[in-house]
Amino acid sequence: MVETDPRAVEEITREVGARSQGFARAPLSKKLAALGEVRARLRARGHELARLGARAKGLENRPGGFGEELLAGAVVIQRYVRLLGDSLAQIRERGAPLIADDRVRRLPSGEVSVQVMPHSLADRVLFMPYTIDVRLGREVDAADIRGAQASFYREAAPRGSVAAVLGAGNVASIPALDVLHECFVMGRSCVLKMSPVNSYLGPAFEHIFEPIAALGGFAVVYGGVEAGKALLGSPHVDHVHLTGAIETHDAIVWGPPGAERVERQRNGRPLLQKSITSELGNVSPVVVTPGRYTEQELSDVAEGIAGMLFNNASFNCNAAKLLVLPTQLAEPIVSRLERLFTEQPARAAYYPGAVKRFQELAAHPGDGRLWSSPAGDGQLPWTLLTGLSPESDAESFQLEPFCPFLSVVEIDESDAPEFLDRAVRFLNDKVWGTLNAMLYFPSQAEGDPALEAALSRAIDELRYGTVAVNYWPALGYGTGTPPWGGHPSGSLQNAQSGIGFVHNALMLEHVQKVVLRGPLRSFPKPFYFPSHRHLEDIARGLFDYESTGNVLPLLRTGVHGARG
Fold first, then answer.
1. Which of 268, 320, 386, 412 has its CA 20 to 30 A from that of 126?
2. Across the strands, what pairs with 131?
3. Whole-number pLDDT of residue 70
């Protein structure tokens, strides 16, 4: 796409700013109508988004490539559009999105836990037997959860404001969901700057979100650094939301690296004089709890880890990047991973800077050993860095491997409670990022009071915005119902994985953490397993269901899932 001239960027932000109060105060009936039209337009062009992404990423002729792009793009966007429509309708009827009283409880810690998934009968079909709970701060009144929801819609005469959304380039749904969150959860009008990596999606987004633009809530600009500077520097922009790298965040907030930045950070005087929220990536850890695993369970664990890495060529902030194992399970799991990595063809290294990042990580393995599968020109190999301990000094503990690179850390401890305590300390104290973490918990340990207590303690103490048990944390991202973001311990000076939460279709506030849990073995097979044979069928069925609400595509999805 042609870069938007900085003078045009300023004019666009001025126009959006002039209409932002009208958007903020638009009747819910008009916002609901706009979402309905967005849903119709996305239904017509959702497959186009997937085809564009598959072509750009070299997946056109790869089995499952179109399905992967459709699922991570249009399916996720369409679901979130539907959920936002449901929430706005419930706000109109009762003042807040509906949460049943039996979904809310006060935890021993004093936090309030709200079960947000499954949220409907369809969710029970699609996501059984998994649950997602959102933990809110101690100040929340568990008896009246509506007081911690949808505060924008409690304002009698909200002031208009404009958010500059710096879109991510790796997944089609990210910029779309960020815009929808800003518009319909936070009440802000948005100017989206497309990432140069996937600016090819911009024209489709302009068409799909035109009903929001008609209300004064949306515009798109294109380009790189100069367009970004013009957008962030505009006096008509009140807020910034960034999905990207910590380096970009710190450059925006504190200026270029050097003594002046250090001084600003020390004195708490940021260059950016606007509020900012962000999602900045993660060295996403997967922890395997000691215990008795069957051979099939070990294979499932390995498939799950590999699938998280393979998806989108590992250019995901929630891809498995760090594996923490008890020493006695290292050989059976690593050997399975090597086999899966060898069987899976390498992918194009389409994301800018990926090759350089891979080379930097490979050049600083600490005391580990590198193992890589075959790869061709323009590709990066699926790579394991094994033989590490929590005391190692590998670059990959602190530098996000935004490439197909998985580090393996061994802890020589067979006692599950002690292992989990050591793993939690390692992740909290030595590993960069606070976005998401995953724990595998053996089936034989479920129901054991001592082991369940150790697991609960680990979940409580891990400083991550989402902690998942036995399932990829991406489920929390993709469903749109729970919040998604870094742990609230982040700050402007040390943002880690970012500040604030997005998505959050139930518009919960005072969010502390999201907890996702399901059994180690489940039926049907998780969609991200490399051996899944019907990913495209599932994606097509889910898109049809989310676009129409018809039951038949949902039933077909269930059949394809069972055949996976």
1. 320
2. 517
3. 98
Neighbours of 183 (CB within 10 A): 25
* Separation of alpha carbons 515 and 461, rounded Å: 12
What does pLDDT average to in each consecutive run of 10 residues of the chain (564 residues)? 93 98 98 98 98 96 94 98 98 96 95 94 79 97 95 96 98 98 98 98 98 98 96 98 97 96 95 97 98 96 98 98 98 98 97 97 94 96 98 96 98 98 98 98 94 97 98 96 97 97 98 96 87 91 93 71 63
Residue 15, amino acid = E
93 membership: H or E segment, kind and range: helix 76-94
Contact between 117 and 123 (Cβ < 8 Å): yes
In a domain, 190, yes or no: no
Q: For residue 125, what pLDDT is reported?
A: 74
| Euclidean distance between CA atoms 342 and 180, whole angstroms | 40
Q: What CATH number corresponds to the domain at position 341?
A: 3.40.309.10
3-state secondary structure 380-405: ECCEEEEEECCCCCCHHHCCCCCCCE
Which 3 state secondary structure label does DSSP give 517?
strand
Is 297 contained in some domain? Answer: yes
Range of the domain at 338: 285-492
Task: Beginning with the edge strand found earlier in the chain, give each strand of the sheet holding 322-326 in spatial order.
Answer: 104-106, 112-117, 131-136, 511-517, 466-469, 436-440, 285-288, 322-326, 405-411, 383-388, 369-372
Give the pTM.
0.96
C-alpha span between 435 and 149 (Å, rounded):
22
Pairing label, strands 285-288, 369-372: unpaired
In a domain, 210, yes or no: no
Residue 562 inside a domain? The answer is: no
CA–CA dist 427, 322 (Å, integer): 10
Measured distance CA(109)–CA(114) in Å, rounded: 14
Residue 173 has which token pair? 């749904």
Measure the CA–CA gap between 417 and 292, rounded to whole angstroms: 14
Integer Cα distance of 31 and 26 in angstroms:
7
> Taking Cα atoms as reference points, which of 224, 127, 117 lies closest to residue 484?
117
Are residues 400 and 248 in contact, defined by beta-carbon separation less than 8 angstroms? no
Helices 246-254 and 259-267 cross at an angle (nearest 10°) of 80
- CA distances to 113, 337, 408 from 343, in Å: 42, 10, 20
Give exposure, 215-238, as e/b (b: 16+ Cβ within 10 Å): bbbbbbbbbeeebbebbbebebbb
Structural domains in the chain (count): 1
